[in-house]
Amino acid sequence: MFAQRFADLTGNTPGTKPWNDYLTDVTQPFIQDVLDGAGELRIAKSTPLGELLAESFTRRLFAGQAVGMRSLTGPLLILNSTVSGHPAEESALLRGREAIPSVSGDPRTDCNQRSRPFSSLAGSRLVFTTLNTDAGFSTSPDPKRARTAPADDLPDMRLPYTVLRPGAGPDADIDLAAAAALNANFPPVFPNARVRVIDARYELCPRRSFYVTDGGATENLGLLSALYALREAVSEAAPSTILPPMHLLAIEASAVTYDYTEDRGIGAATGGSKERVTAGLTQELLADIRTELATRKRGETLEVHYLPLPMAFRSRGGLGTHWMFAQTFRVADPLLAGAPNRFMAYWEGVFSHHPRYEMLTQQDVEFLWGRLFAAQGDFCARPLVGTTSPTPPEARIQQVQSWICGHENWDDHIAQPDWQVSAWNRTVSSLSAHRLPP
Questions:
Q1: Domain boundaries defined on the chain
Q2: What stretch of H or E contains 194?
Q3: Which of 7, 154, 253, 435 gets the most CB atoms within 10 Å of its CB?
């Protein structure tokens, strides 16, 4: 949505109609549209549930008109999805060995049989992008070389990418709403969605089918794809070219859990391990890019700005799911260790005079976030007063501000402000130094 309205938004200041319309549109109840349509007969037949999400995006964000990715004129866009099922040829271990029955003996008429999906490379990437190249990504091998290429030392131990870009023909565009819905095809609510790809390299059966789910199933920030593309761009830059200052903004709003519980390893197995592996790969890619920049000896730099929402909004309640903008939010103190149970948490809060949570309205949250990401920074430099909330908000807003900015807890320990506060101040200072608008 931001990419589609880029010129209009960057040509105006926050508070003007384009920005107000943008904020209104992106907080529409898209998931409610999906729930309302889940009982339709077409859903009971063959239409995937994700189609309802794409239709909601089209109706609410693009005034009911189909918008192709080819029409985007602002920054380049990458929308990630995660592969759940793929053609057999994607896998070195399956290629030429798959047990697919032949009905007629003619490969051309057996294409439906050969389109059966496999899952040995589940977790790989299928991306929709306006990049003009797929160089830099580990793509599937050329089928014409697959049988003659030397054997891999570690077959299938890679992160393969299938890169889809708008083509030049009238039917070769990519619907922006559909790509965005696939990017948000959240499991297990949405079933895997089928993406049909025409690959001319496969002369007998060019129509190939992938099944995909939410991009965050592999890596939630989407940084890997951006870093692969950036690394390739830097490595291909001519030695005589002076690259502009580069800034990588990683904006995080995912729920986070840091209170330890005995879960028999489920937390590490289902989410924690994946995050650590992708985080390690992210750091390796950043190191590669910075090494390449240093080798060029042109004084070129890459600055990374990690901008997570404060812990108060991401843990122990907080923002919760991003599917709908709730009417109220339960925001808890993130700086206190978790109490053994809810009963003790309540009474400890009563006797210590430190409330453990506050209930914020939509207006309160908009007010706080507006200050957290204000162009001048300095969220903790002054008390926050004044808002459009219909009830006096000062006490609860100042309480949440104290949790974000650090406060004296039960053990008379002064906690440090949330990471976001100093990170945003550094971002504002850095972008201002390079004359880039925050």
A1: 6-93+112-142+155-217, 223-433
A2: strand 193-198
A3: 253
- How far is 55 from 51, CA to CA, in rounded Å? 6
The DSSP symbol for 215 reads: G
Least confident range from 5-9, 65-69, 324-328, 377-381: namely 324-328
**Distances from the Cα of 181 to the Cα of 52, 190, 192, angstroms:** 9, 10, 12
Q: Which residues contact 284 (CB under 8 A, 6 or more apart)?
A: none
pLDDT tens for each residue of 310-321: 999 988 878 876
User: Read out DSSP for 31-99?
Assistant: HHHHHHHTTSHHHHTT--THHHHHHHHHHHHSTT---BGGG--SS--EEEEEEEEB-GGG-TTTTTT--
Q: Let me know: does 164 contact 128? Beta carbons within 8 Å.
A: yes
Integer Cα distance of 115 and 98 in angstroms:
12
Tell me how many helices (H) and strands (E) the chain has.
15, 9
Q: For residues 291 and 283, what is the distance between their CA atoms, to the nearest angstrom?
A: 12
Degrees, nearest 5: CA angle 75-426-290: 60
Please state, as a whole number, how many other Cβ atoms lie within 10 Å of the Cβ of residue 205: 18
Q: How far apart are CA 434 and CA 438, in angstroms?
A: 10
